Amino acid sequence: MTTTELREAILAHLKYALGTDPDRASVTDWRIALSYAIRDRIVDPWFASTQAAEAAKGKRVYYLSMEFLIGRLLEDAVVNLGLMESASAAMSSLGLDLDTVLSDEPDAALGNGGLGRLAACFLESLATVGCPAYGYGIRYEHGLFRQSFVDGRQVESPEDWLRQPHAWEFERPGAAFEIGFGGRVASNAGRTEWTPAESVVAEAYDTPVIGWKGRWANTLRLWSAKPTTFFDLDRFNRGDYYGAAEPEALARTISRVLYPDDTTEEGKRLRLKQEYFFTAASLNDILRRFLSEHDDLRQLPRKVAIQLNDTHPAIAGPELVRLLHDVHGMPLDEAIVTARGCLSYTNHTLLPEALERWSEGLMGSLLPRHLSLIERIDAAHAAAHPDRGITMRENGEVKMGELAFCMAHKVNGVSALHTELMKRTVFSELHRLHPERILNQTNGVTPRRWVLSANPRLSGLLTDAIGEEWVDDLERLHEIEPLAEDAGFREDYAAAKRANKEELASYLRAERGVSVDPEAMFDVQIKRIHEYKRQHLNILEAIALWQEIGDNPNGDWTPRVKIFGGKAAPGYVFAKEIIHLINSVAQVINSDPVTSKFLKIDYPANYNVSLAERLIPASDLSEQISTAGKEASGTGNMKFALNGALTIGTLDGANVEIRELVGAENFFLFGMDADEVMARRAIDGHAARAIEADPRLARALDAIRDGAFSPGERGRFDAIVSNLSQADYFLVSSDFTDYWRAQREVDVAYRDRTAWMRMAILNTARSGWFSSDRTIRSYMSQIWNAQGLLADAGTDGRDEG
Ligand code: GFP
After folding, report:
1. Residues 603, 590: contact at Cβ < 8 Å?
2. Which of 240, 312, 363, 733 could make an SS bond with 235 (beta carbons 3.0 to 4.6 A apart)?
3. Tens digits of residue pLDDT in 287-345
């Protein structure tokens, strides 16, 4: 598409779709007009892909996920269509700057953290490798809350990405299913019938997802809850206006917010409703599509692969059995086997509190038929293995992990270590019974977003050095390995990093009034705030460092800027305390005239995908410091390594594999491994012992206790101090001393810029294995048994002028 054609298309959309003219148009109008113009370019390859999948009558992959953290879509589409230059030229011919237009797009924050972002990377990779696939989830009206800080404390406000027209989706009023809840179950002529007491309509909204070079496009289908009757005219006419609108308001509650607070009974009920709502709608849609192409439901596992992203859609097991058995009359045992042939389950956490359980009372009242099917599935499983005593139910609760495991033909962990721990811990008994079921699929990230778009300077350098093929064959990055020894390349690589850091520094100055020196090491920890991720270990080290610099302000310190980003779940009090501590420490340290040339701390609020895209390319040091055995994989760690940040990390999740690939000498390892963690935890008074043994740690904790960061409010952070001195389940105190040691090694290493750049280049060169294209191909062959349909001569809508 030429610049002129694109410009004409933008102007036409501005006029005919938005009803405005260039003189009056706002940046948002221009952005939406550009989005429509780009979307038009996607529709043909999208149709072609759908038709190719229909013609092949082959297997389709369905990725069911409560979260899709897709972020902004316009840049992704422009990049994948190869229209960056045209778009930039077209916009500037209209007097606009493309970057300004791109950053006007609100982040679609339909997710929380790694799990949702993984789903987004997978969608893009599925399209890039040409695998016919659908993502299924919920079209939340309000995505993850917006975070701000008031006096250093996290304050949440609703996110409103749908306040403006969403240019990427197509509403499908014709694709709708009625989803029931509650009611009665009865037998009728040998068939079980469920008559729900209430129901809502799930209506589809489709977003096309275009792969690299526009060769293939899949669909992200998100369900929105609508009432079965929109409006009660009788009540309205009686003057009961609120009552008349009630059905609509109640139905809409289901797709209103991502992660409603589920500490109350009502919250739990809503959450289970959400899970069933999107799972049932998706399964109905999948069966409808299957039956439009085939007629024998026993063939389902040959044509349908359904991936359950965590336990959130685990109700898919009993729901698919219900559809096959109750609705389509397949014998129960056969229905169970058929459902299992289609389903597979990805586990993302070993934390017991994060493995879902639903009380049988709640499940029985909301999904009575499913509860009775779970009892049947459980009984059948127990009967097949009478000596094992394994059950999906315990203390009046249904264990969704066990249910998902038993209803899946494959169960996977997301890094080698995590998969091993799954076998040894949470699923040890089930693993003994089904030793072929668990397998590993180490996570990956899409290079299109996380290198090509996020880091154009590095991308340009890579393409100049080895050609463009690395973009969809990321292991080609190995080809730059010899260039680590080339002084010219090292200089260019360093210059790209430096320019990224300068850009971040000006952003921080403009947006936050914070001034940081781009010469300093940018040390970054961005992820959900959680005790196991140990942001408090990082801030403790900052305190100790600040104290030491203060003792010796003329010392030869390596200047650092520590940057934090991340949100705490609204009900997670301790995580919110950690945020408050980081902000309070930052305030004191940043205003210390003696130390601030060596140490600064910044914590931009409202961390999201777009901020990650800004921070990662500008980072020198990547903090991956979770308690070993707790971080299932991590995916941020991969993005940093690809963008040439060195990792300081524990032997946890995918850090283990990153270190193996980039080389131990290019990775700063510290801390206990997973076995040592378990042994340490068993030692009585482990935290107190660690503090006694390390005066630095004791002094840092004393400063917090004595109110150094809460002037006039001694005791503000007592919960943190007493946790770290006593129970310290996540072993912050016990790992502190070694973390400090490793950080000082980092300081020394950073001063030798040549050696540092060599290490950074080797991180980039050796991290290509972490492409989500590799992960998706591996799921296709090892779990889904699915084929890609990409013909080499696919539609290629790239720049022609
Ligand atoms: C979870 C796990 C991570 C893992 C992702 C994706 O995400 O270790 O990398 O899922 O598998 F904890 P978070 O939301 O916790 O980052």
Report:
1. no
2. 240
3. 999 999 999 999 999 999 999 999 999 999 999 999 999 999 999 999 999 999 999 99
792 confidence band (pLDDT: 50, 70, 90): low
pLDDT value at residue 402: 96
- Contacts of residue 239, Cβ cutoff 8 Å, sequence gap at least 6: none
Rounded distance from Cα 30 to ligand 1 centre (Å): 36
Contact residues of ligand 1, CB 6 A cut-off: 112-115, 118, 348-349, 414, 443, 527-528, 631-635, 653
How many residues comprise the chain?
Answer: 801
Helix H or strand E encompassing 371? helix 368-384
49/39 Cα distance (integer angstroms): 15
Task: Let me know if 727 is exposed, middle or buried by CB neighbors in 10 A (0-12, 13-18, 19+).
Answer: exposed
- What share of the chain has pLDDT > 70, as a percent? 99
CA of 626 to the centre of ligand 1 (A): 12
CA–CA distance, 663 with 548 (Å, rounded to integer) = 31
The answer on pLDDT for 797 being more than 60 is no
Using an 8 Å Cβ cutoff, are 120 and 68 in contact? yes
Give the position, in ligand 1's atom list, of the atom nearest the Cα of 117: 6
Position in ligand 1 atom list of the atom nearest CA 346: 11
Distance (Å) from CA 114 to ligand 1 centroid:
4
Average pLDDT over residues 193-209: 97
Place of tokens 């979307």: 39
Tokens standing for 502? 């300068």
646 versus 109: the higher-pLDDT residue is 646
For residues 217 and 123, what is the distance between their CA atoms, to the nearest angstrom?
10
> Which of 68, 115, 530 has the most ligand 1 atoms within 8 A of CB, as the residue to mutate?
115
pLDDT confidence of residue 798: 39
How many Cβ atoms are within 10 Å of 281's Cβ, its own excluded? 27
Please give the domain boundaries of the chain with CATH numbers for all domains.
Answer: 57-72+107-443+777-784 (3.40.50.2000), 447-770 (3.40.50.2000)
Residues noted as catalytic: 348, 527-528, 533, 635, 639
Shortest-distance Cα residue to atom 13 of ligand 1: 114
